[in-house]
Amino acid sequence: DGGITQSPKYLFRKEGQNVTLSCEQNLNHDAMYWYRQDPGQGLRLIYYSQIVNDFQKGDIAEGYSVSREKKESFPLTVTSAQKNPTAFYLCASSIGTVANEQFFGPGTRLTVL
Amino acid sequence: GENVEQHPSTLSVQEGDSAVIKCTYSDSASNYFPWYKQELGKRPQLIIDIRSNVGEKKDQRIAVTLNKTAKHFSLHITETQPEDSAVYFCAASIQGGSYIPTFGRGTSLIVHP
Questions:
Q1: Contact, B98 vs A50, CB < 8 A?
Q2: Which one, of A95, A70, A104, A68, lies nearest residue B46 by Cα?
Q3: Per-residue pLDDT tens for B18-75?
Q4: pLDDT of residue A40
Q5: How would you classify the pairing of strands B62-67 and B10-14?
Q6: Is B74 helix (H, G, I), strand (E, B) or coil?
Q7: Under 8 Å CB-to-CB from A74, ≥6 apart: which residues?
Q8: Digit-coded pLDDT (tens) for B92-109
Q9: With 90 as the cut, is the pLDDT of residue A91 above it?
């Protein structure tokens, strides 16, 4: 499974700590997305970016932050302000603003201890 | 904004039976409708999609139908096999402008041998 990668696969965090999830793609895609997946909740959009140095809040952005300094990279920081951060986090990319297939990374499972 | 409802949340069938998953959407401007399959512990992957200029699309045992008047679309899987067991997500989006798909909550399909 190449194309879009996430690391680490599993992450444990103590309450009060910030943690950064990595997302890298080599598909030359302009658009990148972060989703949170909880059982029975589907895929909820946290942040998205359509171009380098620009990003927009999704439906559940509170307690999260992102950056897009390079086309290939879109890291997500889960801050201590996120009240319930334990979840499965998925990164995705797509060609751009044309409605088309999204390619997902393998995900990072974050557990707050 | 767009709202996508997906039913049923769980679907249990015997091997060889057909399975149907239905989604409704709220924004009549939506014109791209992908379906993703997520096997346990893996990333979602596109299995089929349909655009608003067609009413039906088939790919081997999988088909998707779209009724724009009623604002609903369905995934049909015929001759189900145990390897079809997974969570299936529908999505709806508007082509052009910002491509931000709205996902349904997912259907857990269980195919019993």
A1: yes
A2: A104
A3: 999 999 999 998 999 999 999 998 999 999 999 988 899 999 999 999 999 999 999 9
A4: 79
A5: unpaired
A6: strand
A7: A23, A25, A32, A34, A49, A55, A66, A67, A68, A91, A93
A8: 987 665 678 899 999 999
A9: yes
From chain B, the residues in CB contact with A31 under 8 A are 99
Closest CA–CA distance from residue A17 to any residue of chain B (Å):
26
**Cα-trace Rg, chain B:** 14
**Cα A23–chain centre separation:** 7
Name the region of B43 (left: φ>0; alpha: ψ -120 to 50; beta: rest): beta
The shortest C-alpha distance from B79 to chain A (Å) reads: 26
- Amino acid at the residue B110: I
Q: Do B100 and A41 touch (CB under 8 A)?
A: no
Residues of chain A neighbouring B51 (CB-CB closer than 8 A): 99
